[in-house]
What we know:
Layout: E1 3-6, E2 9-12, E3 16-20, H1 24-29, E4 39-43, E5 48-50, E6 54-55, E7 64-66, E8 68-74, E9 90-97, E10 100-101, H2 102-111, H3 116-119, E11 125-127, E12 131-132, E13 143-148, E14 151-157, H4 165-175, E15 183-185, E16 193-195, E17 200-205, E18 209-215
Parallel strand pairs: 3-15, 5-11, 6-18
Antiparallel strand pairs: 1-2, 3-4, 7-10, 7-16, 8-9, 8-15, 9-12, 13-14, 13-17, 17-18
The chain binds zinc ion.
Amino acid sequence: MHTINLDGRNIPVGKIACIGRNYAEHIKELGNKTPDKPVVFIKPPSSIVDSGGTVVIPAYSSNCHHEIELAVLIGRNAKEVSTEKALDYVSGYGVALDLTLRDVQNTQKEKGLPWEIAKAFDTSCPLSAFVGTDQVADPQNLQLKLTVNGQVRQDGNSSDMMRTVAELIAAVSSYFILEAGDILLTGTPAGVGKIMSGDQLEATIEKVGRLQVSVE
Length: 216
Ligand code: ZN
Protein backbone atom coordinates (compact mmCIF):
# COMPACT_ATOMS: atom_id res chain seq x y z
CA MET A 1 0.00 0.00 0.00
CA HIS A 2 1.41 3.36 -1.04
CA THR A 3 0.30 6.34 0.98
CA ILE A 4 0.84 10.07 0.93
CA ASN A 5 0.70 12.48 3.82
CA LEU A 6 -2.08 15.09 3.84
CA ASP A 7 -2.11 17.44 6.82
CA GLY A 8 -0.57 14.71 8.99
CA ARG A 9 -2.92 11.94 7.81
CA ASN A 10 -1.79 8.98 5.68
CA ILE A 11 -3.96 8.62 2.57
CA PRO A 12 -3.80 5.41 0.47
CA VAL A 13 -3.03 6.29 -3.15
CA GLY A 14 -4.84 4.76 -6.13
CA LYS A 15 -3.80 5.49 -9.69
CA ILE A 16 -1.82 8.52 -10.80
CA ALA A 17 -3.43 10.09 -13.88
CA CYS A 18 -0.96 12.27 -15.76
CA ILE A 19 -1.38 14.98 -18.36
CA GLY A 20 1.14 15.50 -21.16
CA ARG A 21 1.68 18.75 -23.10
CA ASN A 22 -0.16 21.25 -20.91
CA TYR A 23 2.34 24.16 -21.10
CA ALA A 24 2.96 25.80 -24.49
CA GLU A 25 6.71 26.45 -23.95
CA HIS A 26 7.30 22.79 -23.01
CA ILE A 27 5.48 21.60 -26.14
CA LYS A 28 7.82 23.81 -28.20
CA GLU A 29 11.02 22.60 -26.53
CA LEU A 30 10.20 18.96 -27.39
CA GLY A 31 8.95 19.82 -30.88
CA ASN A 32 5.51 18.35 -30.17
CA LYS A 33 2.17 19.46 -31.60
CA THR A 34 -0.42 21.16 -29.39
CA PRO A 35 -3.07 18.51 -28.66
CA ASP A 36 -6.73 19.32 -29.29
CA LYS A 37 -7.64 17.01 -26.40
CA PRO A 38 -5.59 16.39 -23.22
CA VAL A 39 -2.87 13.74 -23.52
CA VAL A 40 -3.55 11.29 -20.66
CA PHE A 41 -1.45 8.42 -19.30
CA ILE A 42 -1.28 6.58 -15.96
CA LYS A 43 1.48 5.78 -13.53
CA PRO A 44 0.85 2.99 -11.00
CA PRO A 45 1.08 3.70 -7.25
CA SER A 46 4.19 1.49 -7.20
CA SER A 47 6.02 4.32 -9.01
CA ILE A 48 5.81 6.58 -5.94
CA VAL A 49 8.89 7.52 -3.94
CA ASP A 50 8.61 9.85 -0.94
CA SER A 51 10.59 13.04 -0.46
CA GLY A 52 14.02 12.21 0.95
CA GLY A 53 14.12 9.01 -1.10
CA THR A 54 16.25 7.75 -3.95
CA VAL A 55 15.46 7.57 -7.67
CA VAL A 56 16.79 4.60 -9.62
CA ILE A 57 17.10 5.10 -13.38
CA PRO A 58 16.42 1.79 -15.20
CA ALA A 59 19.36 0.26 -17.04
CA TYR A 60 17.42 0.26 -20.34
CA SER A 61 17.55 4.06 -20.57
CA SER A 62 20.40 6.54 -20.92
CA ASN A 63 18.29 9.72 -20.89
CA CYS A 64 16.02 10.21 -17.87
CA HIS A 65 14.36 13.66 -17.74
CA HIS A 66 12.95 15.61 -14.79
CA GLU A 67 9.47 17.17 -15.06
CA ILE A 68 8.18 19.18 -12.10
CA GLU A 69 4.39 19.12 -11.86
CA LEU A 70 1.59 20.33 -9.60
CA ALA A 71 -0.04 17.22 -8.11
CA VAL A 72 -3.75 17.26 -7.27
CA LEU A 73 -5.25 14.84 -4.73
CA ILE A 74 -8.79 13.69 -5.49
CA GLY A 75 -10.93 13.67 -2.35
CA ARG A 76 -14.09 11.94 -3.60
CA ASN A 77 -15.11 9.95 -6.65
CA ALA A 78 -15.36 12.08 -9.78
CA LYS A 79 -17.07 10.73 -12.89
CA GLU A 80 -18.16 13.00 -15.74
CA VAL A 81 -17.96 16.12 -13.58
CA SER A 82 -18.33 19.62 -14.99
CA THR A 83 -15.50 22.15 -15.04
CA GLU A 84 -17.58 24.38 -12.75
CA LYS A 85 -17.88 21.68 -10.07
CA ALA A 86 -14.48 19.99 -10.61
CA LEU A 87 -12.51 21.68 -7.81
CA ASP A 88 -15.11 20.42 -5.27
CA TYR A 89 -13.56 16.98 -5.82
CA VAL A 90 -10.05 18.09 -4.81
CA SER A 91 -8.80 17.58 -1.25
CA GLY A 92 -5.19 18.71 -1.55
CA TYR A 93 -2.14 19.70 -3.55
CA GLY A 94 1.43 18.43 -3.63
CA VAL A 95 4.69 18.58 -5.54
CA ALA A 96 5.46 15.79 -8.02
CA LEU A 97 8.17 14.80 -10.43
CA ASP A 98 7.04 12.97 -13.57
CA LEU A 99 10.36 11.29 -14.32
CA THR A 100 10.48 10.24 -17.95
CA LEU A 101 12.85 8.01 -19.92
CA ARG A 102 12.96 10.38 -22.91
CA ASP A 103 14.94 8.06 -25.18
CA VAL A 104 12.55 5.19 -24.53
CA GLN A 105 9.51 7.47 -24.90
CA ASN A 106 10.77 8.78 -28.26
CA THR A 107 11.18 5.22 -29.56
CA GLN A 108 7.67 4.33 -28.35
CA LYS A 109 6.24 7.45 -29.99
CA GLU A 110 7.93 6.64 -33.32
CA LYS A 111 6.45 3.15 -33.22
CA GLY A 112 3.03 4.38 -32.09
CA LEU A 113 3.30 2.32 -28.88
CA PRO A 114 2.17 3.17 -25.30
CA TRP A 115 4.47 5.17 -23.02
CA GLU A 116 4.32 3.10 -19.82
CA ILE A 117 7.83 1.65 -20.07
CA ALA A 118 9.11 5.25 -20.26
CA LYS A 119 6.83 6.69 -17.58
CA ALA A 120 5.77 4.06 -15.04
CA PHE A 121 9.04 2.58 -13.81
CA ASP A 122 9.71 2.14 -10.07
CA THR A 123 10.61 5.52 -8.45
CA SER A 124 9.35 7.44 -11.51
CA CYS A 125 6.95 9.47 -9.34
CA PRO A 126 8.56 11.31 -6.41
CA LEU A 127 5.84 13.00 -4.32
CA SER A 128 5.97 15.55 -1.50
CA ALA A 129 3.64 15.69 1.48
CA PHE A 130 0.33 17.31 0.50
CA VAL A 131 -1.46 20.38 1.86
CA GLY A 132 -5.21 20.91 2.06
CA THR A 133 -7.10 23.07 -0.43
CA ASP A 134 -7.47 25.74 2.27
CA GLN A 135 -3.74 26.47 1.80
CA VAL A 136 -4.05 27.05 -1.96
CA ALA A 137 -6.51 29.82 -2.80
CA ASP A 138 -5.78 29.70 -6.55
CA PRO A 139 -4.13 26.63 -8.12
CA GLN A 140 -3.63 28.65 -11.33
CA ASN A 141 -1.19 31.08 -9.79
CA LEU A 142 1.63 29.03 -8.27
CA GLN A 143 5.35 29.29 -9.02
CA LEU A 144 7.01 25.90 -9.74
CA LYS A 145 10.78 25.61 -9.44
CA LEU A 146 13.14 22.69 -9.89
CA THR A 147 16.86 22.72 -9.16
CA VAL A 148 19.44 20.02 -9.92
CA ASN A 149 22.53 20.23 -7.69
CA GLY A 150 21.44 23.76 -6.75
CA GLN A 151 21.12 25.00 -10.34
CA VAL A 152 17.70 26.16 -11.56
CA ARG A 153 16.42 24.02 -14.44
CA GLN A 154 12.67 24.73 -14.41
CA ASP A 155 10.99 27.91 -13.18
CA GLY A 156 7.42 28.30 -14.37
CA ASN A 157 3.95 29.25 -13.19
CA SER A 158 0.72 27.27 -13.17
CA SER A 159 -0.97 30.31 -14.74
CA ASP A 160 0.67 29.13 -18.00
CA MET A 161 -1.25 25.83 -18.06
CA MET A 162 -3.19 25.52 -21.32
CA ARG A 163 -5.97 23.67 -19.49
CA THR A 164 -6.72 24.52 -15.86
CA VAL A 165 -6.84 21.96 -13.06
CA ALA A 166 -10.64 22.14 -13.18
CA GLU A 167 -10.72 21.60 -16.95
CA LEU A 168 -8.33 18.65 -16.64
CA ILE A 169 -10.45 16.94 -13.96
CA ALA A 170 -13.55 17.43 -16.11
CA ALA A 171 -11.77 16.00 -19.16
CA VAL A 172 -10.14 13.02 -17.44
CA SER A 173 -13.34 12.14 -15.55
CA SER A 174 -15.10 11.94 -18.92
CA TYR A 175 -12.69 9.11 -19.90
CA PHE A 176 -12.60 7.18 -16.60
CA ILE A 177 -13.51 7.66 -12.95
CA LEU A 178 -11.14 9.55 -10.67
CA GLU A 179 -11.51 7.91 -7.27
CA ALA A 180 -10.80 9.26 -3.80
CA GLY A 181 -7.06 8.82 -3.27
CA ASP A 182 -6.17 9.15 -6.95
CA ILE A 183 -3.65 11.79 -7.95
CA LEU A 184 -3.65 13.97 -11.05
CA LEU A 185 -0.36 15.33 -12.44
CA THR A 186 -1.01 18.47 -14.45
CA GLY A 187 1.91 18.72 -16.90
CA THR A 188 5.28 20.39 -16.77
CA PRO A 189 6.56 23.86 -17.68
CA ALA A 190 9.60 24.31 -19.95
CA GLY A 191 13.16 23.45 -18.95
CA VAL A 192 13.06 19.66 -18.79
CA GLY A 193 16.46 17.98 -18.94
CA LYS A 194 18.61 15.00 -18.14
CA ILE A 195 19.35 13.75 -14.63
CA MET A 196 22.28 11.52 -13.76
CA SER A 197 23.62 9.31 -11.01
CA GLY A 198 24.58 11.38 -7.97
CA ASP A 199 22.29 14.33 -8.80
CA GLN A 200 20.31 16.03 -6.05
CA LEU A 201 16.86 17.25 -7.14
CA GLU A 202 14.82 19.81 -5.25
CA ALA A 203 11.34 20.78 -6.39
CA THR A 204 9.26 23.50 -4.76
CA ILE A 205 5.81 24.86 -5.46
CA GLU A 206 4.78 28.06 -3.79
CA LYS A 207 2.21 27.55 -0.98
CA VAL A 208 2.24 23.77 -1.67
CA GLY A 209 5.53 22.33 -0.52
CA ARG A 210 8.94 20.99 -1.26
CA LEU A 211 10.32 17.69 -2.51
CA GLN A 212 13.90 16.47 -2.45
CA VAL A 213 15.30 13.26 -3.93
CA SER A 214 18.72 11.98 -4.91
CA VAL A 215 19.56 9.85 -7.95
CA GLU A 216 21.30 6.54 -7.24
ZN1 ZN B 1 4.81 15.15 -17.28
